[in-house]
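lol ok so funny story. i was supposed to be doing the assay writeup but got distracted and ended up predicting the structure for this chain instead. priorities right. anyway since i did it might as well share w the group, maybe its usefull for someone
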Amino acid sequence: MAHVDQLQEEILDILDSEKIGSLVTVHDDKPYARYMTFTNRGFTLYTMTEDDSAKVKDLEKNPYTHILFGYTHSGEEAPYLEIEGKITDFKEDELKVKLINFFRRLFMKDSSDMVTLQIEPIRIRLMNKKGQPPQQLEFPLS
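and the output, tada:
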């Protein structure tokens, strides 16, 4: 169990310290990646985008995504995450207000033109840890 706890901590450290990742959707039956800015609450990721964007249309057809996260500032040997997730419904609540405030400085558009994407993880793999094979967490955690 200590190994799982340590793995969870290492993954959360990356989620808490990095904010940029590539979100992949399926567009016209082909993978399509774009860089996104994320924030998180635990293992759940959040991002915002224009409500009429191609990625929203892609995710309405297929709510599953793959995200490469981290690996941006620390060189080619830095650990990073591969996240398989599913976009889930997002409820209007206090968290949405916090997210709008977090993302507001990144977008020029009125926040009413934006939609929040909540990504629930299915599997997270910790990659590129020196001398170790990839380590994986499956969700929901038991």
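The chain has a mean pLDDT of 86. Helices lie at 2-17, 54-61, 94-104.
back to the writeup now i swear
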